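User: Teach me something about this protein's shape.
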Amino acid sequence: MTVNDAALGGIERVKQLLTHGKVEEKIDALLDAFEYGEAGLDLIIQALQNSEVDVQEAAYWLLQESTEPKTKLALQLYNPYLFFEYLFTIERYTDEVCRIACVDINQELQTLVTCNYDNIVQVWNMQTKRVICTFQPEATKEFDQIAIAPNNRVLGLWNCNDYAEVWDLKTKEKIFSTHRRSDWFWYIAFSPDGQSFLNAVDGEIFELWDIQIGEIIFYISMFELGHNFIYSNSQVLITPEQGFYQKYKIWDWQTQQVICTLSLSGYMPVITVSHDQRFLLSGSRENGTIKVWNIPTGYELCSLTSHSSSITRLAISSDGQRLFVWSGDSTVEVWGI
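Assistant: First, the predicted structure itself:
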């Protein structure tokens, strides 16, 4: 028997186990598949569609170790939220933060930024639950939302009835404030490179600000398109479809083109979009259901059930490995693989 014959026999055994074996045997077969080069890699990719979720998960983690282009493509097309499970709850984070007005999390730096109802901003180490630094903006009104830029140094604070402030987290110095004031201030979202941010005003106007010069460099008016919106980030915005209850359009806000239309249950669902723009997660304000949607296809992929009876915010870490679920009592559930 030649070496090639032996290899062929080995990979045929792997195929047989993946088809007819028990769950444990299938997972062991996936580990063996790496020994058979490209043919074995193809079997691991195929295992992403196995009927056993445990086998899919084993294949998913094995493929994380490969740098092959087809592996990266297979992972891009896969839904990792199938494996998400509840991990733990941050109960008000510490006794020092009894009421959180707004919060954001940087998973890479293991930090959490809170802003309480006195507008005191604190940056916490998530492992030690200790404050790294504290600073207080000059605003007299409560800030309602926080966003951390991808460069990890810039912090966006904004008040839903007034204006936005941009701070340097490292120096604790304000970079600038938006000069436009509004009766209906909604969102801020940083660009992927952290050099600019999207400022949504009055539910109709989207302004792109350059952080370095502190000026608007581009804007569009959704009013001209006949829509208001309920969610935005630096790449997409989501608007209710006129005349259709619970139907929402997802737009590429720079091209002003509709990507897809989704039917989201409940009144004004809580929405977040993954950093790669492939997944939309919608949470119910009326129960703990979180649905996962594929943006390119518009199909619902799976659902998760939170312990919270009323979801007030969702956030996905930039690596896609953690989901943070806020409830009305300022607790944060952490989900992940």
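Now, about its shape. The helical segments are 3-20, 23-33, 37-46, 53-63, 69-76. The chain has two domains: 3-78, 85-336. If you'd like, I can walk through any region in more detail.
User: That's plenty for now, thanks!
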